Structure formats: structure tokens, C-alpha cells
Amino acid sequence: MFGIAFVGSTTGCLPVDTAPPAEVLVNLRASALSSEIPSSEMADGWQIEFERYLITIGSVSLSPGGVHECKDATTTRYSRVLTLRQSQPQKVGLVFGRGVCLLGYGIFPIGRTSPVVRGAGVSESDMELMLSDDISYMRRSGVTTESVSITTSAVSGTGLYVEGTATRGAEHKRFRWEFPYVTPADSAGCPLDEFTTVHLDAGAQVTVELTARGEALFAQDSLSEESLSFDSFAAADRDGDGFITTVELATSQVRTGTTLYDETLSALREKFSTVASGADCRRLDER
User: What's this model's pTM, rounded to 2 decimal places?
Assistant: First the structure.
């Protein structure tokens, strides 16, 4: 006679992790100098007034990294067009996760068919501007720069658009610039070897506030950390028509192999957005 042994599954005896993920709301607040920069804040005495300052920001994500565990992490699948002339905090995205997670987001152009939300104070014409192929003066002119090639991009629109005036005494300049890819990585607002992290307990509700520093346009690499200057931009007005274009930035050399566009984009990537609260900086191997 043969005996039949029944072997039950052991998986039913293991504890089931039913802890709810934390909710992470990511907001963006523009700095006080994102609407107007008085001459007292500029090293060279120019006064800056921004008439339009728009960004396309999205793809907020939580992800694992380093020695820490991040569970149930999610990513948003949409972007928002926001104006920096809005003084109140503006929602960027809502994500979920548990543990110690890396926080990511991006400022970049999106296609017309991509999901996008219009922020407060953003008009229909602003939306058309941010999504239109016609905005890309550099694509049409065939200009490329060392830090980013714009002519090869098939995506319509732009990531950052700024338009305004600069005045110093009798001097008066207008400017209108686009920067398609201003893409903060997980290390945005942190030293280069550290990453933006959030500590999430199960079921917690966390708000992370980003600060958009509109004045970072004029904080070039050649200047000290807090110094702002417009003189190099005024000098880029090669044709003397009083209007400084994106192409003029891209064709103005500030030093060998580096254009004013390259240097401005570098300043934006390093200094434009920082984490004000709700997250911190740490190395991936730091416990």
C-alpha cells in the first residue's frame, strides 16, 4: 500500500505586508525675484522685469536607490505648465511610496498629445506657446550648442520660456528666450554626489516644496554664488536692435568653446530649482 503525503504551500503562513504607502504631494513655489529683480539685487545695476516666465514640469517620481528600500513607489504620467509669476505654491504632482525613496522630476518639452494640466494664471495663449513648434527659433535656424542639440529634437514646445525687459538708466533691452531641456535629476538642489531623498512612513502624508529661482538665469558660472549680472546678455545684442534672442545667446562666446546659452543653461540646471522642505540630501551609500 502506498501512502500519499500532502504537502501544503508555506506561502500562506508568511506575513502579508499590508501597510499603506505614504502620500507625497510635490508643490512648486516661485522665489520673490521671479517676477522682478530690482537693480539693488544686480551686481551691474540692471533692473529686470519678467512679463512671461513659464515652465513645463512633470514626471514626478519616487524610486529606490542605494542601500535603502523604497516600496510601492509610483510615478506621475503627466506634466503641468506653470507660471513663475504666481506667488502661491502650485501643485506639481502626487506620488506614493514607503521607505527611503529618491525624488525625481523634470522640466522639459512635451508633445501635443501628452497629458498636460494648465496651472493657475496660465492662459490659453501661454499653453499654445509652450506646446508650439513655432517657439523653437533655434531649431528653425539650425543652431546647436555644446551642452544641448536642439535641432535634432522632434518634440514640440519647450521646457522653460521667459520674456521680459532690462533697464539701466537710459539703456533698455528686451529679451525672449527658450530652454527646451532644463532637467533636474534626483540630485537637484543637492551636491553632485548626493540625491534628493524623502523618508516615508506607512500611511504618512508628506508635502515636498520645491523653490523655483527665476533669477538663476543671471547667475552664471563665472560669477560668485549669489551674484547676478545682465551685462553679458546686453552685449549679446549684436545687431543693436534692443532685442536679445535665443539665437544671439547661442552665438555669443563667453570663453573658448562655451556660449552664453551654454553658461545660462548650466546655471539653470544647477540653481533653478531647489528643495525647500519635506526632503533632504544624502549619498546613496549613507544609512
Answer: 0.84
